[in-house]
Amino acid sequence: MRANPRPLSKREIRQENERLILEAAEKTFAEAGFGGATMQLIADVAGLPKANLHYYFPTKESLYRRVVQDIFQVWLQAADVFDGADGPEEGLGAYIDAKMEISRRHPAGSKVWASEVMHRAPVIQDYLETTLKEWTNGRMAVIQRWIDEGKMDAVNPRHLLYMLWATTQHYADFGHQIETLNGGEPYSDADWAEAKASVKHIILTGIGVGQDNA
Amino acid sequence: MRANPRPLSKREIRQENERLILEAAEKTFAEAGFGGATMQLIADVAGLPKANLHYYFPTKESLYRRVVQDIFQVWLQAADVFDGADGPEEGLGAYIDAKMEISRRHPAGSKVWASEVMHRAPVIQDYLETTLKEWTNGRMAVIQRWIDEGKMDAVNPRHLLYMLWATTQHYADFGHQIETLNGGEPYSDADWAEAKASVKHIILTGIGVGQDNA
DNA sequence: GTCTATACACTGATAGAC
DNA sequence: GTCTATCAGTGTATAGAC
């Protein structure tokens, strides 16, 4: 344990505390839902007094809104691998890998997102109508281009995307069920590798793309 | 408006009121989550005074428990089509159809189930460990048999099941997102038919099963 | 079996000393 | 920027008249 060379600036204190709070909030909202997560509980998880949460985030809803927005950003960035790919095997394969990795590393975020959408997106409806819609249309166009170029079968691009989202996010959102069916044991590296390979194999084969992934 | 030929027996009154309450509860729990759904709100949806709910279901949790149990039954019954099928095209095709139909007809139930599992199954953990586990093992054995008989490719049966669950339930759990991406319009008969056909085509092709479904 | 009134606990949010 | 004390509002659940 070393002494800090200099005291943190107010800006740094704010950043650090916001990070602590957001981390605790994401975990707590995921586990208990918006209604079940109390400010007291989030404060306990963050290791701060409840009043401090209200200092950084005036209302519970503003805190929740920030959590959902952050998740949405991570989620959108996963699609960067999609762009600039030569074809579906590379592009969709990398996208599946990226989304499976998010399910593994940020399961809480995925659950908060799922819960928000299930409850008719009370705080991010505008994102669905603008950003997500544009993103979806763009990726559908890419898939359609691959189809036109004969690089994959003529499947419905929209429902292919939905299948990718559903399947990859399932490993986060229903992680508890999967763990229970795994004898109560969390997934090992090998389990995740098997899951990834299975998902990629079935979907890529399903759209007429040969692949040699082990 | 006709007069009832005879007054309802107490048993019939109980059945009818329980049905009203359970219907309202499923809808409300799905839309607002366990914490967000208040007994007052459920009572309003059911058209009954709040105190009556406590007469039929002593606590909020007992009402919720009953809702989840009922959903689980519907969900398990959908798998009847699985058994007695000659091969994967018939068995899995019918299973996908059945699960898509449940997503269409009982989206609220699917959401309550998803929410329950996401929150680590506080009330149906025992079902996951017993009934669901046995069900899953049984169906995995059927799939493995089809593989051994050369009727489909050698994919991992467990992950194939997860993909079926994820993909079909996605159309209920994320129905709001799908509707938003559909221009705010609910899915028509044609939309559902297209979704079903897409899901069946990709998955059945993905496991090496030819199919001629339109 | 129905329903009004109410008890009791808890939650989100704030005031104000430090 | 931190934290204790506290308020106003809401939620679950029940008592008791009908």
List the helices and strands and how they pair.
The structure is a homodimer of 214-residue chains.
Chain A: H1 10-36, H2 39-46, H3 50-56, H4 60-77, H5 88-105, H6 107-118, H7 125-148, H8 157-173, H9 175-181, H10 189-206
Helix pairs in contact in A: 1-2, 1-4, 1-6, 4-6, 5-8, 5-10, 6-8
The structure holds a DNA duplex (18 and 18 nucleotides).
Summarize the structure in words.
The structure is a homodimer. Helices cover about 75% and strands about 0% of the residues of chain A. The first copy, chain A, is an all-alpha fold. Chain A has two domains: about 10-60, Orthogonal Bundle (Arc Repressor Mutant, subunit A), CATH 1.10.10.60; about 65-205, Tetracycline Repressor, domain 2 (Orthogonal Bundle). In chain A, α5 packs parallel to α8 (about 155-175). The longest helix of chain A has 27 residues, at about 10-35. The first copy, chain A, is globular and about 60 Å long. Chain A starts with 9 loop residues before the first helix and ends in an 8-residue tail after the last helix. At the A-B interface, α1, α6, α7, α8 and α9 of A face α1, α6, α7, α8 and α9 of B. The first copy, chain A, binds a DNA duplex (18 and 18 nucleotides) through α1 and α3.
